[in-house]
Structure formats: structure tokens, C-alpha cells
Amino acid sequence: MSAVINCAAYADGHRIANLKVNDIGKILQQTDKFVWIGLNEPDEALLAEAQQEFGLHDLAIEDAHRAHQRPKIETYGDTFFIVLRTAQLQEGQREITFGETHFFVGVNFIVTVRHGSTFSYSDVRTRCESTPHLLRKGPFFALYAVMDAIVDQYFPIIQTLGEELEKLEADVFSGKPNRETITQIYQLKRELLEIKRAVSPLIDICNRLMRFDSTIIPEETRPYFRDIYDHAIRINEMIDTTRELLTSVLEVNFSLISISQNEVSKKFAGWAAILGVPTAIAGIYGMNFEFIPELNWRFGYPVVLVFIAGTCVFLYRHFKQSGWL
Amino acid sequence: MSAVINCAAYADGHRIANLKVNDIGKILQQTDKFVWIGLNEPDEALLAEAQQEFGLHDLAIEDAHRAHQRPKIETYGDTFFIVLRTAQLQEGQREITFGETHFFVGVNFIVTVRHGSTFSYSDVRTRCESTPHLLRKGPFFALYAVMDAIVDQYFPIIQTLGEELEKLEADVFSGKPNRETITQIYQLKRELLEIKRAVSPLIDICNRLMRFDSTIIPEETRPYFRDIYDHAIRINEMIDTTRELLTSVLEVNFSLISISQNEVSKKFAGWAAILGVPTAIAGIYGMNFEFIPELNWRFGYPVVLVFIAGTCVFLYRHFKQSGWL
Amino acid sequence: MSAVINCAAYADGHRIANLKVNDIGKILQQTDKFVWIGLNEPDEALLAEAQQEFGLHDLAIEDAHRAHQRPKIETYGDTFFIVLRTAQLQEGQREITFGETHFFVGVNFIVTVRHGSTFSYSDVRTRCESTPHLLRKGPFFALYAVMDAIVDQYFPIIQTLGEELEKLEADVFSGKPNRETITQIYQLKRELLEIKRAVSPLIDICNRLMRFDSTIIPEETRPYFRDIYDHAIRINEMIDTTRELLTSVLEVNFSLISISQNEVSKKFAGWAAILGVPTAIAGIYGMNFEFIPELNWRFGYPVVLVFIAGTCVFLYRHFKQSGWL
Amino acid sequence: MSAVINCAAYADGHRIANLKVNDIGKILQQTDKFVWIGLNEPDEALLAEAQQEFGLHDLAIEDAHRAHQRPKIETYGDTFFIVLRTAQLQEGQREITFGETHFFVGVNFIVTVRHGSTFSYSDVRTRCESTPHLLRKGPFFALYAVMDAIVDQYFPIIQTLGEELEKLEADVFSGKPNRETITQIYQLKRELLEIKRAVSPLIDICNRLMRFDSTIIPEETRPYFRDIYDHAIRINEMIDTTRELLTSVLEVNFSLISISQNEVSKKFAGWAAILGVPTAIAGIYGMNFEFIPELNWRFGYPVVLVFIAGTCVFLYRHFKQSGWL
Amino acid sequence: MSAVINCAAYADGHRIANLKVNDIGKILQQTDKFVWIGLNEPDEALLAEAQQEFGLHDLAIEDAHRAHQRPKIETYGDTFFIVLRTAQLQEGQREITFGETHFFVGVNFIVTVRHGSTFSYSDVRTRCESTPHLLRKGPFFALYAVMDAIVDQYFPIIQTLGEELEKLEADVFSGKPNRETITQIYQLKRELLEIKRAVSPLIDICNRLMRFDSTIIPEETRPYFRDIYDHAIRINEMIDTTRELLTSVLEVNFSLISISQNEVSKKFAGWAAILGVPTAIAGIYGMNFEFIPELNWRFGYPVVLVFIAGTCVFLYRHFKQSGWL
């Protein structure tokens, strides 16, 4: 698969030509057109070519080559460099796979660079091309469209983790203290932290796209970034709520384990007493003294048996009543 | 039930006409009148009509169609778009039902869009119409009136949850460690989090309505939003206090369980000792050695019995004194 | 008792006349005089009268009628509306009673409105009148004087709670785990939260009185509000410190309970072993085998007794040494 | 000892005269000179005299008379009023004694007012006089010199508390759960809170001395306050680190107590089983049935003894292996 | 080894001469050249010389002489003084060694001062000299190069600590409560705190280098500091995540210990019951009553044996089923 997924020129919201990378320069000189190019794990040569065509900064190209960046937005002169982290739930699986997408956006171009396992942005492009009255707004609308698609991927993930929380709650309140449950709580916490780290910088990124004192971002595209901003805030809130509840679940679980321990202790103490009494009494009548009058008494044995049984029954009732058994 | 609950034109604080949606345009051109329209879960067609009449933004209409938004305020040109979450206690029940209301407010119109289980705002409208000297202030006063009604719904909820906290406190301090109580503490925490998420964005919303550098909001209506701001702050504070106390209750409960565990252990240890002594002594005189002088002694048995009883009494007193029994 | 406690006109720091409420208007027109009126739980009629005389805002009057406000400061045109919460320790009691005082302060008037159990401000007025060179600064000095009196009431309360903390510390470190202590820790935490809620808004209120870009507050009275600001900060800090220590006390208490539990377990285990050994050995010589040579040995019994005693002494020493007993 | 420790006029960095308090006025009129006066717990008369000579504000004088202020900086016209808390380790002791020093600093005077146990600032003055090229910078350099001396006193205290933390860590990790250790952790936490309360306002105070939009503080003395600012930040960081570690130590201690409890339980359970087996078996052969064939068997006794011993050895090995003993 | 590691003049990105310290002055007068000098633990005399040549501030020189500073940035006139903390993992060891590097950077000079165990910056210098088109940007590019090298040292450290966290997680979830593990968790927390203290001030330092309203830092070098800023943010985030997970690991460990304790208690209670039953029954038939009919019954012994065995088997199954064994 080529690293150049898609490279086209747009005018007035319509795709007017598919381009080769080295034809881009010509288009860029025409202010009424813009270029949208999608790369997938490009090699250094291709990035160097793109750098030359679009006039990108050394440091940004260096960053675009390395994955495992923190989500961020930077401006180099008139070009924005944006890094986002993508996340996807594998169909039918619990596993989350993270990826990364970088953007170079200028006054009449947008370059998307995908790293790691990310879904293709062809669908987004197709959707954009079907609404030329919107795509006409230029490369920042294209940026919005891709960012929106990326952020939308987080909602099903958050929902899945929310359901997992509910399962864990049910496990905990069912009252069986369980190593498995605790391990899962920890794993869930870990995943939430990772997602938070991917999403929370988005708030600042959108904020700057909404308000940045730059003349490159058209006024009319700014409300769109507010839309993503809202989404990012909501995801963040859901993560924070889930984390806080998770912490509470752990505490509650801990309290329930303690109560369980308490019950075990009481139960054990109760039964130990019930078993200890016959042992003690029988021990006394097992002594070998010559003169133990009761031993020669005809009804000694049944009376002692009854006494023992009575004491046991009494203790049993007593403990039952006070909630120890 | 029609989705258009009420649609009327107002002049100088008085209702001057009930309107059809497609008559709105005419009124909007007259700057001395304003339109107040209430919708309930409108379909796309109706929203599209409203969009056209009032000149609303695509993104806002899209939001207004979807429920499950985060409370927020946004400005699109001269129009404010506001999302609030409503909450209600079901009469005689413990259940809280959440809903959502969206507002479009412009210089001479206000549109309210209800989603989910919300009470009707007809009463609010009636109340407003009975004070024309206030309603004369325009659509932002109407906005205040509805927002105030929504926020007022939170107070009985908070109070109910506060009473629940007191019940839980009583449960905990009564000293019986209880799974039920712990589960309820968790549930209460969860509800508080949800309410907090609904109320806390209100502070920022009111702040912006109080101070926004917009000329659309008349100076004289601004103190009213400060009133709601105060309410939102108070609800927030009450939630935070309740949450903090809830956390303390859980900790305290945990300490009390530990103390209880401690008491069980001590009690058990005490009684085990009291039962262990006769068993041990009786065991010794149960040995079958031929030459155990005491066995042949006439008073061996009673003396041993007295010794055993004495030891038990001594232990009992000792444990009682040191607080183990 | 009349709801109008005191109503007087002041000029140059001296009381020049006692007024009736409906005479106020005349005084207010003279810029070299000011009016100081004290109300106690006024009814609606009186408030309406005051509203008319001083030209107060509807919303402020509405607030002034209701108690249970959050402490706050608001400006309505040239008038400040301030709400404070008062607190008092009942003489010789541990109970704190909360009240509320509202202020309306304008360029030449101050109205104080007391709600709930608050001490009378007559003493403050008398003290002010005894320093005319200060009272000459106008109604904001009177405001300062009353606020200072209110804030000063918090210091003995905080001190009492601090002493209570010390008592609780002593209880905890004395090492007897105690339900009572834990309940008291919780109650103290609750009270601190309530006081914090009453005091912490004061910081913001004073801040605004110190810096507000208003020309009504004379420059020379501003340092006085900084004085109250300092007091509020100090009370806040003391509350926060006490709360943090309280949390630590609870944790420490919990650790001490665990240690205690540990000690109980060790002690019990130790004595169980010491009692278990004679029982086991005696059991063996209590078996009824025909051929147990030791049983017929003359010194069997004493030797076994010595062996048992020796083992018990050895175990006792061993456990004592390793800290189990 | 007189309350006036030292009172001198300086010109060009050199002491030119020792003054009486009532001679100060003359010097203050000469802009090329400045006055440095040191007071120790002055009475009201002396403060009144100083107030008159230097033209100080009533509220500042009132504050200067009372100790137990919060560290703060205030400006009254052209005069700065600064409150600092001092702390000292008693030579060879663990005890920290706190004191307070107040400063009045104007364009050509500095007054230091000591309260409580503070070391004398004579040494600081001597050191300043030995570097006239620095002291020439005026009263704010003198202020810096004294503040620096005060802040330097905190470093050995922090270091001592850090060493104490290490001792507590060692105690905890040695694994003996200990009431003493826990009490000391709490005491250390308490002391850290108190020091933090004394030091943290310093950051704000220095910040204002570094940046204050006042023309009184000469530009060239400002870097000196940045130096103290750095020290205050460092002390604060050290306190925060120590507190955080202390919290961890408490948690870790708690975990270790639980592990210890676990071990005790296992050990006890193991030995109880090892002792319980012979007791149970011996009990069976201690029954008085007439027809127990084994009892008449010649090797019954040794075989049972061997069986009991074997079981005990087996259990011992089993528990040893699974880590219970 | 001399304290002057390297001292050279650069023009247009190329090294044009190696200098002696007292020749520096001549170069500094030529605005098209800059001096880069590297010192290693210089003595006071050398620092005094440098101070004179470069015109540095007293306080900065004093700081440069002392190690154990907090990372910071300060400006004295046209000179920046920067303190960084360095950290290195010893090859093949777990030990982290910290050091310190100070920088003086002016319009045409940079001085690096190393303290403690830091790697030499000769490699950095060589790398810079191999890219004259970058080094041409002047001393702030040299500053960037060295700072980058320092920050890059933190990544392998963080990774090592991350791996350690994973090892600890595995230890904890394997379920054997372990003093060793807990001690290691604490040590890891301690190290993370120390690294955080070294790295977190970097964020502020880079921020000021990126945005500082100074004309000395050339615009074109500013993006480089943003690069380091990003690194510092990432390291900080990784530390915070690791710390949060570490806290969770400790909590989880604690829960697992409690569960383990619970299991021990249940197991013990179960086996105690199973052993207690034969002891009690055998005790009864060990009584010496004359008239116990069962004793004379031929099948008494086998029947009792079967009964005892049956009860034990029943209890075993019961406990097994309810999860106690």
C-alpha cells in the first residue's frame, strides 16, 4: 500500500483534480483552491518532499516522523501542526488500540499523517465531498471533519468502560470478595488514565482553534471547533466520573470485605463456643478421681448429655439472636 | 400532543397574539415586540421551520435535536444557544428523573425546546404574564423566569439527599456494620455526581449571562441572572458538602467495623481462655497413670472443681476489667 | 420588641438625631450627613418602606426578607447589598448557633438587617460613636465596625473546636479504640464544614470591598476591610489545618485499631498455644491402651507434669521475648 | 533590657550616628540618609512615639502591638508593613520555638519589631555595616538582610524534620507495628503544617516585593527579594515532599500491619492444626468403649504415637511450604 | 582535570578559535561572534574571573557556586541565569545519580557550569559544530542543544521506573502479600517525587524562554524551546500517571491482603470445626460414668467412628461448597 492514500485539489468545495505530490506547488499558488493530502506512515523521503512542497518547519517534520507524541497544537509561521491520539475498540473485542494522527494545516492545504492502527479517513473525505457548501469553507473545515471523526471514536469506548464499571459494581455488591474483581478495577483505572491522557489535551487544542488570534482560521469555521471542544469536555467528564466511581467501588469493596471478615470471625467464635462447652464438661467427667459421686449415679450420663445439649441450644439461640451466627 | 406547546407575541409585557410558527417572521421585524415559543421534543421538520424563521445556526439546530448534551451556553452571531439539564423528584418517590431544555434567545425572541421528562413551562409563562412590568424587559427576562423555575427544582432534590445522608449517618453510628448501608452510600454518591454534572456548568453559564460583552442582553436583566448564579453556587456547595460528608461517613463506618472486629476478637479470646482452662486441667486428671496420688484423695474432685471454677471466675473478672468481655 | 432597633442620623462622626423611618428621605438629600438604621427580622411592610426611602432593588429586598442566603456581595447601581453569616457559642455550652445579617450600604446610609440568633449591634454603634474621628469616615466605616464584630465572634469558636481536636488527639493516642471518639471526630468535621461555608465567602467579599472599582467606597476606609480580610484568611487557615489534622487523626486512629487487633491476635495465639500443649499431652496419657509402659512407671505422673509445666514456661518465655504476649 | 535595641542613622552605607527615638524626625527630612531602628516587644507608648515619628497608620500600629498575626505584606501610602513568622530549633533540642517579626519600611527608614523568642538582629546589622557598598542601597537592603536571616533559620529545621522522617521510615520498614511510631508520624505532620503556615505566605510577600508597582523599592534591590523567594519556594517544596512521604509512610505502615496480622493468623492456624490433631486422635483412644480392638493390641500405643507424630510432621512441612509457618 | 573543559569562539556557526578565559573580553565586543565556555565545578577564583569577563551579577555567581539549587530561570539585565537538575541511570544499575548544571547566557556568550555527576557536554558541542547552519543561530541554540541533551537523559529513567511499576503490579496481582513489594512501592514513590521536583520547574523555564518579552532571544530559536517544553510536559505526565498507578497498586495490594486474611480466617474456622467435632464426641465417650449403655454395646466404637467420620466429611463438603475451604 502506498503511503500516499489520497491527494486532491479542491475548489469551491468540489474535488477538481487528483494530484501527484510534486504537482502540489502549482495549486498552492492559487488562493481560491486548496490541497488535501492523506499520508499513512510516510517514510522520511516522502515527508521531506511534503516539507519542501508546503514549506514546513524542520521540528514539525521531525515530530511527524516519530509517533508517540503528546496531543498538541503548534504554529510555525502560517502553518498549524496538530497531533492527536486516536483510539478504537476492536470489533467484538475488549481491547483498545491507540494510534496517532498528525495534521499540517495552512491557508490552502491540509496534510494528514496517520501512525499506528487508525481507521482510514477516506469515509470522512467522501462525506465532506458530499456537502460542498461546507467543504467550501476550506482546509479548516476538512480539519474539523477529521478531528470530529477521531473524537467520535471515543464515545463507544467510554460507554464500554462505563458498562464494565456497572459489571464491577454488581460484582462488588453481590458481596463475594474477589481477587479477579479487584484486578479488573485496577485495569479499568489504567485504561481510563491512558484515554484521559489522549483526550484531555484536546480541550486546549480546540480552545486555541476557537480563539487563536490568527487570521488564517476563517471566522465561520470556528464554531465547528467549539463542537469538538464540547465533545472533548464531555468525554473528559465521563472519564473523571468513572474514575471517581471506580475509587469509590474500591473503597466500598474494601468495607464489604471487612464486614465479611467480621461475620466470619463472629460465626467462628459462635461455633467454637458451642463445640467448646461439651468438650470442657466431658473433660471434667473424664477425670479419674476415685470419688466423683455423679459417676455412680444412674442418671448421671443422661443428665449430663441433656445439660450439654441444653447449653449448646442456649448458646446457639443466643448467638443467633445477637447476629453472630 | 402537538410539539408546539405555546407560541405568542408580546408587547410591553402583555401577550398580544397567539401565533402560528410561520407568522413569526412578521413579528420579528417589529423591534418593540418579542416572540416566546415553547416546543416539546420537536421533530426535524419543525426545527427546520424554526431555524428558518429565527435564522438559527446549523450546529445549534443539530444540538437542539439531540438530547444528552452537556449544559452550555454558545453564541452564534446575535443568538444565544443555551442547554440546561432539568431534574425532578417523582412525587412520593425517591427516583430522580433527568430531562433537558434548550433555549434560543435573540434580541426579540425566545425559543424553549424541552426533551425528556420535564414539567411544562406554562405556569412560568402565566406567572410572567401576571407581572407585565417585569416581562416588559424582554426575552431575557423570560429566559430568567424559565431558568429560575428549572434551578428551583434542584433544591427539594438536594434536601432529600441531605436527609438520606442523615439517615445513613444514623445507621452508621448505631454501630451495626451493614452491607445495605454501604450500598446506599455508594448510590447516593453516584446520584450526587450526576446532579453535580448537571448543575456545575450553570455557574459558568450565568457568569457569562451576567458579564458577557454583548449588547443584546439588557443591563437591567443582568441582576436576575446573578440571582440564578447564587442559587447554582449554593446547590453546588451543598452537593460538595454532602459528598465530603459521605466520604467521611464511609471512613467512619470503616473504623467502626474495625473496632467491632476488635471487640469480637477480644470477646472470643476471653471466652476461649475461660473454656480452655477447665479442659486443660480436666485433661491432666484424665490421664491414666497408676500413681497419681490426688486421684485417691477423697476431696480431690471437689477441690479440682473449685479450683477450675475459681480460675474461670478470676479470668472472667480479669477480662471484664480490661475491657475484653 | 420593635423591628427597628435603632435609626439615627450622623454628621461629622456625631449622632445628630434619632429618626423615624419616614423621615429618612430628608436626611439622604444632605450629602454631609448619613443614616444608620438597624432592623431585626423586619416584616415585609417595613422592608417595603425601607426600599422606598433608600431606593433599593427588588431582588435585594427579596433576598433580605429570606434568611438562609449564602454570604455574598452585590451591587445594584450605587448600593451595595451584603449578606454575612454570624455564629455564636452559647455561653457555657458547646452548641454553635448560626444567624444572618444583611447590609444595604450606599453613599450616605447603611441598613443592617439581622435574622436568627445574632447579638445586637448596639454595642458596636456605641463604640463607633465614641470615636467620632473614625465614624466621620461615613457608612462604610460603620459597615467595617459591624463586620469586624461579626468576624471576631468566630475566633472563640475556632479555638473551642481546636481544643476539642486536642482532646480527641489525646483520646486516640491513649490507645483505646472508641466508638464515641470516632463519632465526635465526625461531628467536629461537620461543624468545621459549616463554619467554613460561612467564612470562606468573606475573603471574596472583603477583596471586592478593598479593590472594587467603585467611587462610593472612600479610599481611606479600604484598609479597614483588608483588616477583616486578614481575619477571614486566618480563620480559614485554622479551619483547614484543623480539618487536615482531623483526617490524620482518623487515619492514625485506624492504624492504632489495627495494631490493637494485631496485639489481641498475638496474645490470643500465645495463650492458646500455652493451654493447647497440656491438653494435647494429657490427651495422649488419657488413652486407654493396655500397654503404655509409662503409665505404670512410678514417676510417670510427676515427670509428665514437670514436662508440661516446662513446655508452658518455655512457650511463655518465647512468646514474651518475641513480643506476642 | 530596653525595648529599643538599636537606633542608628546611615548615610552612604555607613552608620553616622546613634539616635534617640525623638531625634529621628530630623534625619527623615534628609533624603540621603536613612534610619534603622530595632525594637523588641515595645509597649504601647513606644509604638505611639514611633508612629508619630514615622507617620505610620493606626491599623498597622495596632497589628504591630499584637503578636500571632499571619505573615503578610501591606502598604499604607508610602510605607510597607510586613509580618513574618520566625522559627528556631533550640540548641541540642528537638523543640521548635516560633516568634514573630514586624517591619515598617519607608523610603528612608526601616523599623523591625520583634515578638516572642527570636534571635537578635544585631549580627545582621553588623554584617550589613561591613559591606557598605550593599547597605548603601538603602532600607530595602536592610529589610532583605533581616528577612534572609529569618528564612535561613528554617533550613536546619526542615533538615531535622527530614532526618526524623528517615528514622520513621526505618522504624516502619523494620516491620514492628508500633504505637510510638504512629504517634510520631502524627506529631511530625502537625509540625510541618505549622511551618508551612509560617513559610508559604512568604512566597506571595516576596513576589510583591519583587514586582510591586511602587517606586519606593529601588530596582537594584529587587533581585535580592527573588533570592528569598527562591528559598521560600524550596522550603515549601521540601515541606510538601515530606508531607507526601509521611502520608505514604502511614499507608505503608498500615499495609505492613495488615501483612503482619495475616502472618499471625496463618501461624496461629498452623500451630492450632498441629496441636489439634493429637488432641483429636488421643481423644478417640481415650473413649471408654469396651470393645475397641486396638486398645488391646500390643503395638497400639507406639503405632498411634508414630501416627500422631507423622501427621504433625506432615502438617508442619505442609504449612512451612505454603508459607503459613 | 582543569575546571575549564572547553572555551571557544564561534562565528557563523563555526568554531574560529580556542580561547583562554582572559581573552574572552575581546571577542565579546564583536557582535558577529559568540563565546561558548564549559566549566566543571569551578573554584571561586575562576567564577570571579568569569564574572568579570561577562559582567555577571553577584547573586547569580553566588548561586552558581553552590549546588543544590532548585531549577529556575532568572534575568539579570541582559543575562539569563538558568539552573537545571540532571539525572542519569548508572550503566547496568538501578541507581539514579543527580547532578546540576547552571547556565549564563547573554547576547553573544554562553557559560555552562556543571556540578556533581553529570556527563560531559563535549558530545553536544561536537554535534552542534557539525550543523553550522543551526549553530549560527547563536548562544540560545547552544543552550537548547545542552538542555535537550539533559532532558533526554530523563526518558530512559522514566522507562526504567515504568518497568519497575509493571514488575510491582505483577507481584501484587500474583497475590502473595509481601513486605518487600510494599517497601519497593514506597521507594519508587520517593524516586518519582525527586524526579518530579527536578523536571516540573522545566515547564515554567521553557515557557519563559518561549514567550519572554526579551529581545535577546532570537525569534527563530524559540520553537526549539517549545520542543523541550513538550518533552518536559510528557515526562511530567508520565511521572504523574506512574504515581497515580502506584497509589492504586498500594490500595489494591491492601484489598488483596484483606481478602487473603479473610480466606485464612475461613480456612482456619473450617478446619477447626472439622477437628473440633471428633474431639467433642470423643470427649463424651471418654467420660467415666458407670452407666453409659453405648459403651457396652459391641458396635459402639465402630458406629461412633463412622459417625465422627461422617460428620467430618459432611462439614468438609459444606465448607468446600460455601467457599470456606
Describe, in plain words, how this protein is organized in 3D.
Five copies of one chain form a homopentamer. Chain A is an alpha+beta fold and 325 residues long. Among the domains of chain A are: 1-135, Beta Polymerase, domain 2 (2-Layer Sandwich); 263-321, Methane Monooxygenase Hydroxylase, Chain G, domain 1, CATH 1.20.58.340. In chain A, 59% of the residues lie in helices and 17% in strands. The first copy, chain A, has eleven helices and seven strands. In chain A, strands 2-1-3-7-6-5-4 form a seven-stranded mixed sheet. In chain A, helix 9 runs antiparallel to helix 11. Chain A is rod-shaped, with a radius of gyration of 35 Å. The two termini of chain A are 70 Å apart. The relative contact order of chain A is 0.08. The model of chain A has no long low-confidence stretch (mean pLDDT 89). Chains A and E meet through strand 4, helix 8, helix 9, helix 10 and helix 11 of A and helix 9 of E. Chains A, B, C, D, E: This is Magnesium transport protein CorA.
List keywords for this structure.
homopentamer, 325 residues, alpha+beta, Beta Polymerase, domain 2, Methane Monooxygenase Hydroxylase, Chain G, domain 1, 7-stranded mixed β-sheet, 59% helix, rod-shaped
